[in-house]
Design a protein that fits this description.
Elements lengths: L1 H6 L5 H18 L17 H25 L6 H24 L3 H22 L2 H32 L10 H4 L1 H15 L7 H13 L3 H27 L19 H19 L1 H16 L2 H7 L9
Helix pairs in contact: 2-3, 3-5, 3-6, 4-5, 4-10, 5-6, 5-9, 5-10, 6-8, 6-9, 6-11, 6-12, 8-10, 8-11, 9-10
């Protein structure tokens, strides 16, 4: 109904203003630049399981709202909106990963990677082609799983060591090699290395940005990926590979209570999904392509939601 009414209005100041206000409001929900400040300041404070649910779902609701509204209601309002979206996405992904690189708290690092991931999703919407939307949808699914796994993995590290700051970790690989291997898979997926789930969305977004001559966006994706590699190198070298500082208390896995078997099982389930999504990229991309095509041709969606009535009693 809104799509039909907005399409009938002149594309002037009032409609454009409403679109920008909606972008700001839902952009805050999605933790996009410059309104992402609340997420790194809050997501590290709850229990790790709660943070895993929040990071996997809540910001993605904001992204879904932006994709739905700006492909259905405000699609033809102004090219300015999509130019703003591209600029916001570039700044979100770069500043998010810079925040992760600067942090020494494992859970705050995970929170900043959530912010950076939002930039990739918004980039697909800003470019607006079918291929770009495929990349955005693929990255949304990947980010839901990865973000939850990173917070869950951070909680497991805290259970083992009683700490989440990298200088107080160390020796996790020798203590729990299988867990350490799973966390390394999460790190590889975060960086976008094949054959894990993070590779294909970034590949598709790079190709879409090149096809649309958005070379700044292409450079941002590649630079963000490089900075992410530096971030995971810091995390793994300090928290996992490095020998534990002898001045710190020895690691006692039983100190945090019974082994978190539920968390570890959930963590490995999400890790397996990241591997599966990377290896089964063809079928998943096919579904994403169908969804992207429907987003760019919303008439079928409108016909289902508001079917034509026949007769006064319909």
């Amino acid at each position: 109904d809104l799509a039909g009414k907005v399409a009938a209005l002149p594309k002037d100041g009032p409609v454009l203003t409403v679109a920008i206000l909606f972008l700001m409001a839902v952009g805050m929900k999605a933790a996009a630049f410059p309104l992402f400040f609340w997420l790194p300041a809050s997501y590290h404070t709850p229990n790790a399981v709660v943070s895993a649910v929040f990071s996997g779902l809540l910001t993605k609701v904001g992204v879904y709202a932006l994709i739905r509204v700006f492909t259905l209601i405000f699609a033809d309002v102004s090219d300015l909106i999509f130019t703003i979206l591209i600029a916001v996405s570039v700044l979100t992904m770069i500043l998010g990963v810079l925040g992760a690189l600067a942090e020494s708290d494992l859970r705050r690092v995970a929170a900043f990677t959530v912010v950076s991931g939002i930039g990739y999703m918004l980039l697909g919407l800003g470019i607006g082609t079918e291929l770009a939307l495929v990349g955005a949808l693929l990255y949304t699914v990947h980010s839901m799983i990865l973000s939850a796994a990173l917070f869950m993995g951070s909680g497991i590290a805290q259970h083992f060591t009683g700490a989440v700051r990298l200088p107080k970790l160390g020796g996790l690989y020798s203590l729990a090699p299988f867990y350490a291997a799973g966390f390394l898979i999460c790190c590889f997926s975060l960086a976008g290395l094949p054959p894990f789930s993070g590779f294909w969305p970034k590949f598709v977004l790079v190709k879409a940005s090149l096809d649309a001559s958005q070379y700044t966006a292409t450079a941002a994706v590649l630079i963000s990926g490089f900075l992410t590699v530096l971030t995971i190198g810091k995390i793994y070298s300090i928290g996992f590979w490095r020998e534990r500082d002898p001045d710190l208390p020895p690691i006692d896995p039983a100190a945090g209570g019974p082994q978190p078997t539920g968390r570890i099982a959930s963590f490995w389930a999400m890790t397996a999904l990241m591997i599966g999504l990377g290896l089964a990229a063809g079928p998943v991309s096919s579904v994403a392509s169908q969804a992207a095509g429907q987003l760019l041709s919303p008439s079928a969606y409108i016909a289902v939601v508001l079917p034509e009535t026949e007769g006064a009693g319909s």
